[in-house]
Amino acid sequence: MKKISIMLSALAIAAMICGCSSDAGENAHTDSEAEASVSDVQNVPEEDEVWSEEKIISAFTKSSVYNDSPIVACTAAEDAAYDLAGVVLCGGDNEVTFVFVDRDGLCQTCVVEDLTFSASTLTYLGNGSVVADLYKEDGTKIDYQLNFSRHGSEVYFKVGEAK
Known about the structure:
Helices cover 30% and strands 39% of the residues. It contains three helices and nine strands. The chain has helices spanning 2-27, 31-42, 53-63, and strands spanning 71-76, 84-92, 95-102, 107-113, 115-116, 122-126, 129-136, 141-151, 154-161. Strand 6 and strand 7 form a beta hairpin. It is globular, with a radius of gyration of 24 Å. The relative contact order is 0.11.
């Protein structure tokens, strides 16, 4: 009986030691990590800063699964609604992808099928809305509007032809 309680005590102590060493390793930071964190904070854009198209496209190509699709157009979100930096329009075979890039460099995508582009224009209307010149399968040009909104962690898109 004494051997069983000693073994259980030893197992409990070993589990605590393993748990502590794991937590300590995860929470430990090197000087270079701390310096990187400080430099990241220094590079955070100001709230009112309007991102350049180059900066928006750079964020898109670094973090989006669509970075190998041809980029058709890009526009900045001057009002920073929903913390947006800008919108990129890219395309593939018989589809168009709108990529909304936020100020953290994260991308939210909306793929619209059965539409194409041809030297498309993309205009930011404000409050998360964009309009692009797109084409239906029969070649009919439409002004396609896409509205982006975010509530908490939920992202919403509302699509339709612009008036």
